[in-house]
Amino acid sequence: MAEDLQKKHSSSKYNAWLRRRGVLNRIRHFHRKARRIVEDWAKKTSYEIVTLAKQHQYVVAKEDLTGLVESLRKLPKDHKVALLMLSYARLEFWIDWQCQKKGVPLIAVDPKGTSSACPRCDSRLKESGYRRLRCPKCNFEADRDTVAVLNIEKRALIQMGEL
Ligand SMILES: [Zn+2]
Predict the structure, then answer these.
(1) Contacts of residue 114, Cβ cutoff 8 Å, sequence gap at least 6
(2) What spacing in Å lies between the alpha carbon of 93 and ligand 1's midpoint?
(3) How far is the CA of 49 from the centre of ligand 1 (A)?
């Protein structure tokens, strides 16, 4: 909504919306609202994840997304990208915070290839339908998210010396 308002009140020569206090306030209002929604979501989600981990005496494993956040920073300033970047960063921040508060161990793994390597044999997976991947070597098949989760778990276990 902020973006639409901004486009509607922009010209190629100058940003007319910057001069209109009312429009600018509306745009700011939408930005603040979006940031608040992201913050609430990140707090709630991290609380649920870390509480569950504490109850079951699990370790929390995460991808080190610093690189991703940095690479998104280089993309053109777009509201969607900015919100996505903010979401990752805030979720990561609150998970760290919750883990420290509750004394839950947190492990960060290398994110490289977590959604393209076979969790069973490390071969490169091939596309197999919508968001699904298949291993040409060992026939393992799953959706992208499951593949990423299994790889993060595997890397965390290796780091902990459990594999
Ligand atoms: Zn495989």
Answers:
(1) 63, 147, 148, 151, 152, 155
(2) 33
(3) 29
